[in-house]
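quick q for whoever's on today - can somebody do inverse folding on this one?? i tried earlier but teh output was garbage lol. tokens:
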């Protein structure tokens, strides 16, 4: 999981964006794992840290996949928690770049992207 460690903050922000897109609550248990979240968003790391000026199509594929997979409130909350747990390991995340990823991938997010997202409200 070395790639996840180097991408935590960016990954958290992207996942939080994607997870908040579908905000209808559901009492179901989470089916998404931290491994799935990290794997889906790992291709976004170079862009989100400014190491690449181009957003890879595999990043958008991951964002869209995670958005589809996070169909319940429990899923969104779990994915958010996974990402927040990883947040402290990335020091070079550019939140401005991260905030723009969903839009660049054609995923609509009706809220501001923030590291202070309350996962329990997703």
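ok took a stab at it. sequence:
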């Amino acid at each position: 999981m070395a790639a996840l460690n180097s991408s935590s903050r960016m990954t958290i922000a992207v996942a939080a964006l994607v997870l908040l897109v579908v905000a209808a609550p559901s009492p179901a248990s989470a089916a998404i794992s931290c491994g799935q979240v990290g794997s889906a968003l790992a291709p976004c790391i170079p862009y989100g840290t400014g190491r690449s000026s181009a957003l890879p199509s595999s990043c958008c594929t991951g964002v869209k996949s995670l958005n589809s997979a996070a169909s319940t409130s429990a899923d969104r909350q779990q994915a958010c928690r996974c990402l927040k747990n990883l947040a402290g390991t990335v020091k070079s995340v550019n939140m401005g770049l991260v905030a723009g990823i969903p839009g660049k991938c054609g995923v609509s997010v009706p809220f501001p992207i923030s590291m202070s997202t309350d996962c329990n409200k997703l």
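fwiw The two ends are 26 Å apart (CA to CA). also Residues 15-27 have pLDDT under 50 and may be disordered. so keep that in mind when u check it
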